[in-house]
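Holo model, magnesium ion. Inputs:
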Amino acid sequence: MMKIFRGDIELDTIYEIKPDELYARGIRYALCDLDNTLADYDTPLPTEQVKAWFCAMRDKGIRVAIVSNNGRTRVEKFCESLDIPYFWKSGKPRRRAVRNALAKLGGTAEQTVLIGDKRTTDVLCAKWAGILSIKVKSIKPRTILWKKK
Ligand SMILES: [Mg+2]
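Output:
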């Protein structure tokens, strides 16, 4: 695999992310993908587990925003109850996805991590933007019938 597609940290799920370890690395902002990172495509609202994760991050002093390439309706509905900034049709892997989010949050590249399940959007976006990347496994990968993964 090309190095640009490899996450700086690779985990199975977001729940393995240790907020205090990120904080100790100087991370204060987490830009988080939505689909297949926080929930599968069929789950419209955050689960209690997702909500608890957001609280744990916030309690440690890390602000989380959702940066999604999905449309407004999906992202707005999911984020409604979370009380966090969110960005739809963010344009990942283009750098402006990170730039726009940081402009709103007020953080710097050095203080920011991007968390997501897709190498060609999330990991690549983090690399191009020069920020830390955490790659998690897709919650429910789309079935590709003609090609076994
Ligand atoms: Mg995703």
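The helical segments are 19-24, 48-59, 72-79, 96-105, 119-129. Residues 3-135 form a domain with the Rossmann fold fold (CATH 3.40.50.1000).
Archived with the compound record.
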